[in-house]
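Blinded run. Sample ID left blank on purpose so nobody reads anything into the name before looking at the predicted structure. Input follows.
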Amino acid sequence: MQKEESSDAIRDLDKSIERDPRNLEAHIRRAHLYYEKGDYDRAIEDWTKVVELSPEIGGTYMRRGTAYDARGDHDLAIQDHNKAVGLMPNFAPGYYNRANSHAMHHSYDEAIRDYSKAIALKPESAEAYNGRGHVYYGIEDYSSAIADWSKAIKLTPETGGAYMNRGNAYLKRGEYDLALRDYNTAIELWPDCASTYHNRAVAHYHKAAYDDAWADVQTCRKLRHEVNPDFLELLKSASGRSA
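Blinded prediction complete.
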């Protein structure tokens, strides 16, 4: 929705709520619009009103929890996600969103458990595999991360991010040919993602393909992405070039 359309819609919903402060649907719709605008405080206010009006709707707690997460209030987010899961114990997105919150809170065991539950309930959830892959990567379990991102790629092969992520894990394991293959695919699917060029440059460096590494460095700069200065010094020294 365009910014002007969103503002018009919010004004219309304001009028509906003025006429009937207990208009549940209007509060829900306005909360979504505020969330999309990044106005998390007002989204939380509306979802809180929905909770007051209808406290047994689990999805409201889940959505308010995501807004708390976006605002950085992870403890409040976890409370809401717990309530959502309690009300909807077989709803995969509830566990997925709580897993995201745990991951942001660096509670990695809990995050893995919730991502796994989301996957058990919804095996076709590429986003849950992707999320769990990030956690495995963060705890340096690269084999498990690769397995999860491979599954995400199988489910959504047109998504460049999963290829980039898996490439990063291969890079960490020193499997540079596999990393380059994934970075190449990621760039085909997502040609404006500067960090992929940066990481591909690192893979080229390890393969002593210095010209290719410099080409990717130049692309990073064109995309206004900062090149890691330590890597840049290594590349300069190895290639005998300054730029």
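Unblinding after everyone has recorded impressions. The mean pLDDT is 96.
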